[in-house]
């Protein structure tokens, strides 16, 4: 994970708005030929030869992040990932982002440098150009809005609406880690408040803490599916938890689904952390959120192409809309998946 480096504290007013923008954006280099004009004019100019995909997310301090346990560099990195994940969920290649920030004078130049070092790291690793943004003061807190822009051949676009009954439901990676990482960080923060000298013991939780603080958008999965010659019939990214994203796919595709509890991909650390917090691991996977994995459906004829891949797990299949959306439990009971949350005790009548 990232380390904090800066100790000095320069007030934002010392640089002024234009000085600050120049300072923060001075190292951005253009990587894509589709970026015709980057930072520096009234607007950026892009020239995509395929369809353009655009998505925006807004992150508000106290609502979407807490700086008590979220270092600014990680926040910058994650803010980019949240957006790139939406571009990848369209089966597109992300190429540009814009970054807009509003912050109070509680933030120093060094603090924004930290934020931008995370943004820069993400832009470099994921090969996107930072082509513009806006910078303004705020009365309170920090707000970041990132817009990501990508491109995709029209025939490759994956909407939420393309799933058919009997398509296989597939997820990348494993689920629940980001939520459990947050639980661990919140617990450490409470300990710290009571005893500021307590040393946080996060080492054994590294994987899930990273899932929360430094999530990776699944660019690799889009590339993998292309290499395997699999075009998902529908796709969505898992930002709000598996159950609500599955419900979105079903609603937009006008289908039902059966999800198998024993197929849900869980890291061993997630299982042990659930035991420690006395949480039901299935509930955590269904409702946890922030895992930024891709959930998609494929035609059954594509099963052979994906079945051996360790990054992909078939977790269920789509059904007729009239059949509804169910979790098939380990005990082989059918439990309806509902809009808000999931009650493990509930069974179908
Ligand atoms: P305008 O007055 O047209 O809003 P600005 O002075 O705000 O222009 O911005 C100047 C240039 O710097 C523009 O290209 C803008 O996109 C870019 N920019 C402003 N703020 C940011 C930021 N936080 N991150 C990246 N680029 C930025
Ligand atoms: Mg501006």
List the helices and strands and how they pair.
Blueprint: H1 12-25, E1 35-37, E2 45-46, E3 51-60, H2 72-88, E4 93-103, H3 109-125, E5 129-137, E6 142-152, E7 168-172, H4 177-194, H5 206-213, H6 219-227, E8 234-238, H7 242-253, E9 255-260, H8 268-276, H9 281-287, E10 293-298, H10 303-306, E11 312-320, E12 325-328, E13 334-336
Parallel strand pairs: 4-5, 9-12
Antiparallel strand pairs: 1-2, 3-6, 4-6, 7-10, 7-11, 8-10, 9-11, 12-13
The chain binds adenosine-5'-diphosphate (ADP) and magnesium ion.
Adenosine-5'-diphosphate binds at residues 21, 25, 39-42, 99, 101, 130, 132-135.
Keywords: ATP-binding, Kinase, Magnesium, Metal-binding, Nucleotide-binding, Thiamine biosynthesis, Transferase
Pathway: Cofactor biosynthesis; thiamine diphosphate biosynthesis; thiamine diphosphate from thiamine phosphate: step 1/1
Family: Belongs to the thiamine-monophosphate kinase family.
Write down the Rg. Answer: 21 Å
* Ligand catalogue: adenosine-5'-diphosphate, magnesium ion
Helix and strand succession?
HEEEHEHEEEHHHEHEHHEHEEE
What is the oligomer described by this structure?
single chain
Number of helices: 10
Low-confidence stretches: 341-349
Structural class of the helices, strands and pairings?
Answer: alpha+beta
Distance between the termini: 48 Å
Widest sheet, order of strands: 8-10-7-11-9-12-13
**Arithmetic mean of pLDDT:** 93
- As a percent range, the share of helical residues equals 25-40%
Q: Can you count the beta strands?
A: 13
The percentage of residues in β strands lies in 15-25%
Main pleated sheet = 7 strands, mixed
Domain PurM-like N-terminal: 40-152
Protein name: Thiamine-monophosphate kinase
Family: Belongs to the thiamine-monophosphate kinase family.
Binding site for Mg(2+) 4: 42, 55, 86
């Amino acid at each position: 994970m990232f380390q904090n480096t800066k100790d000095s504290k320069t007030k934002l007013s010392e640089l002024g708005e234009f000085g600050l923008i120049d300072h923060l954006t001075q190292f951005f280099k253009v990587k894509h030929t589709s970026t015709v004009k980057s930072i520096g004019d009234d607007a950026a100019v892009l020239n995509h030869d395929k369809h353009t995909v655009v998505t925006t997310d807004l992150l508000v301090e106290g609502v979407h992040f807490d700086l008590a346990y979220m270092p600014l560099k990680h926040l910058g990195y994650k803010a980019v990932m949240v957006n790139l994940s939406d571009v990848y969920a369209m089966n597109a290649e992300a190429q540009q982002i814009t970054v807009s920030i509003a912050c109070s004078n509680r933030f120093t130049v060094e603090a924004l440098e930290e934020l931008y070092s995370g943004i820069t790291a993400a832009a470099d690793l994921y090969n996107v150009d930072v082509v513009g943004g806006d910078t303004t003061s705020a009365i309170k807190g920090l707000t970041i809005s990132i817009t990501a822009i990508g491109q995709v051949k029209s025939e490759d676009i994956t909407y939420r609406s393309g799933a058919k009954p009997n398509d296989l439901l597939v997820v990348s990676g494993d689920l629940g880690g980001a939520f459990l990482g947050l639980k661990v960080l919140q617990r450490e923060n409470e300990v710290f408040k009571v005893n500021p000298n307590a040393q946080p013991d996060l080492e054994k939780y590294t994987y899930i803490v990273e899932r929360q603080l430094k999530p990776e958008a699944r660019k690799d999965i889009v590339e993998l599916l292309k290499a395997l010659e699999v075009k998902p019939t529908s796709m969505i990214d898992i930002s709000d938890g598996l159950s609500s994203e599955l419900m979105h796919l079903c609603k937009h595709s006008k289908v039902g689904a059966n999800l198998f509890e024993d197929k849900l991909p869980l890291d061993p650390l997630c299982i042990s952390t659930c035991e420690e917090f006395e949480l039901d691991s299935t509930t955590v996977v269904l409702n946890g959120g922030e895992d930024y994995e891709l959930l998609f459906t494929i035609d059954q004829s594509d099963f052979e192409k994906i079945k051996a891949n360790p990054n992909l797990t078939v977790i269920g299949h789509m059904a007729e809309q009239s059949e509804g959306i169910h979790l098939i439990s380990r005990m082989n009971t059918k439990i309806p998946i509902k809009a808000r949350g999931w009650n493990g005790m509930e069974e179908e009548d």
